[in-house]
From TrEMBL:
The organism of origin for this protein: Schizophyllum amplum
CC terms in the record's Gene Ontology section: cytoplasm
Family: Belongs to the CarA family.
Claim: Ribonucleoprotein is one of the keywords in the record: no
Molecular function as annotated in GO: ATP binding; carbamoyl-phosphate synthase (glutamine-hydrolyzing) activity; transferase activity
Catalytic reaction annotation: L-glutamine + H2O = L-glutamate + NH4(+); hydrogencarbonate + L-glutamine + 2 ATP + H2O = carbamoyl phosphate + L-glutamate + 2 ADP + phosphate + 2 H(+)
E.C. designation(s): 6.3.5.5
Pathway, per record: Amino-acid biosynthesis; L-arginine biosynthesis; carbamoyl phosphate from bicarbonate: step 1/1
Protein name: Carbamoyl phosphate synthase arginine-specific small chain
One annotated GO biological process: L-arginine biosynthetic process
SUPFAM superfamilies to which the protein is assigned, alphabetical: Carbamoyl phosphate synthetase, small subunit N-terminal domain, Class I glutamine amidotransferase-like
């Protein structure tokens, strides 16, 4: 039986004047947030724990949500995992809107229902809403500020326009980024720094499973002070407006001008790379959120072949502007087959750099794995650069050092800045 048994009312108010009535589940509290929709048909637990949904009311277009419950969210810290099963330690979205929530669930790894999970994390949900109608509105008028009114608050008048809270006015990245550096898979044979703008766990998992030692740094960390310790730099996904991260883009501009090692960025990280290169970011009407976005490769690189269409997982409101001419040393990498938005950029072959950025999520979680080998390509480039930079006497026949120091710490002079982030 899927239908939720709660009789507590709930209402979704949109700033544009529409209201939708249903029944509440999860935490019995009312909230303001930005209303967005996702067309994904599975992996609701991964979507809800994705830090890129911070400050957002997530509307699922799939009619039934919760039928396979929620798993225990613990995993080991080792060469295969990063401490969690889902994409972060808790629910990141502000609220959930569904057509029908399942009270009864069935899955071998499930330990609780969606309603129980939401209540435990203080996140409200509303079921029984026509999510098709909500989605049609959001497609027509764009992502819209909203209010979830629960219980007694349902009887109150809809908020006035000035009462709605806009989460994009805040630096959401600073809320979800790590405050202190930490290391994953310390025995990895290649050292990669990750600037954490709100990294999904499967990004980190995809790096450590390819043998990398991963050091996760706060989003505004002074990477240039410690960059010589690393064989590559990764910039993660994250929530909100990339304009709040201009400091990171300016630091990265210095990195790209002075540092010749591989750099890879996803989602927010892709936008930061673009801004560092001289491109502008803009707010899309309703963004792309789902697991079925087709992108066309415009150039070949590693496992990617020009002219091929890849199906991708996405979650973003902002994108880079396509301009002609493109900044010197850069070229478009992917373009969206539906709306022609920029889905990737890369350094040109004659630039002397190895830099890639993609708007989509190669690591999926959930979604297709068409582009997962981009992680393999990146780690391979990091290894090759590390091997080429070593003196001949320090290489093994395979190009790696015979003795790798895996206990190297961040310089003491960098520690105070990390503690303040």
């Amino acid at each position: 039986m899927a239908t939720h048994a709660s009789t507590t009312p709930g209402v979704l108010h949109l700033k544009t004047g529409q209201s939708f009535t249903g029944r509440s589940f999860g935490a019995p509290k009312s909230i303001f947030a930005e209303t967005v929709f996702s067309t994904s048909i599975t992996s609701y637990t991964e979507s809800m724990t994705d830090p890129s949904y911070r400050g957002q009311i997530l509307v699922f277009t799939t009619p039934l949500i919760g039928n396979y419950g929620v798993p225990a969210n613990t995993a080991p810290f080792d060469s295969q995992d990063v401490g969690v099963v889902l994409e972060s330690q808790g629910i990141q979205c502000a609220g959930v809107i569904v057509a029908d929530v399942a009270d009864r669930f069935s899955h071998h790894s499930a330990v609780e229902s969606l309603a129980s999970w939401c209540q435990r994390h203080g996140v409200p949900g509303i079921s029984g809403i026509d999510t098709r109608a909500v989605t049609s509105l959001l497609r027509d008028q764009g992502t819209t500020l909203g209010r979830m009114a629960i219980g007694a608050d349902v009887a109150l008048n809809p908020p006035a326009e000035h009462e709605y809270w806009d989460p994009t006015a805040e630096n959401l990245v600073d809320q979800v980024s790590t405050k202190e550096p930490y290391v994953l898979n310390p025995s990895g044979d290649v050292s990669i720094a990750v600037l954490d703008f709100g990294a999904k766990a499967n990004i980190l998992r995809s790096l450590v499973r390819r043998g990398a030692k991963v050091t996760v740094l706060p989003w505004n960390y002074n990477f240039n002070a410690v960059r010589e310790q690393y064989d590559g730099l990764f910039l993660s996904n994250g929530p909100g407006d990339p304009a709040h991260c201009m400091d990171a883009a300016l630091q990265l501009r210095t990195t790209l001008a002075e540092w010749d090692r591989p750099v890879f960025g996803i989602c927010m990280g892709h936008q930061i790379i673009g801004m560092a290169a001289g491109l502008d970011a803009y707010r899309m009407t309703f963004g792309n959120r789902g697991h079925n976005q087709p992108v066309l490769a415009l150039a070949s690189s590693g496992s990617i072949r020009a002219g091929r269409v890849y199906v991708t997982s996405q979650n973003h409101q902002y994108a880079l502007k396509l301009q002609d001419p493109f900044p010197g040393g850069w070229e478009p990498f992917f373009i969206n087959c539906n709306d022609s938005s920029v889905e990737g950029i890369k350094s040109t072959a004659d630039s002397g750099r190895k830099v890639w950025g993609v708007q989509f999520h190669p690591e999926s979680a959930g979604g297709p794995l068409d582009t997962i080998e981009m992680f393999t390509d990146f780690v391979k480039e990091c290894r090759e650069h590390k091997a080429s930079a070593l003196p001949l006497t320090g290489r093994t026949p395979m190009g790696d050092r015979t003795n790798i120091d895996v206990t190297e710490e961040l310089p003491k002079e960098a520690a105070p800045q990390a503690a303040q982030a």
